[in-house]
Amino acid sequence: xxxxxxxxxxxxxxxxxxxxxxxxxxxxxxxxxxxxxxxxxxxxxxxxxxxxxxxxxxxxxxxxxxxxxx
Length: 70
Hints:
2 helices; mainly alpha; 0% strand; 70 residues
């Protein structure tokens, strides 16, 4: 009787799954490295509105309005 060999694609799949599992385990065990982000530049605060609120028409708001036009 002839023994059936698994197909190469099946072997490749299980080999890849084992590799991904090992890589995930290695990343979970490694110590966390803190990324030193550059500090954000200090912006001058806007003056407070006289009658409350605080809405101002900025570029991203204008872009939003353009995308909602019918």
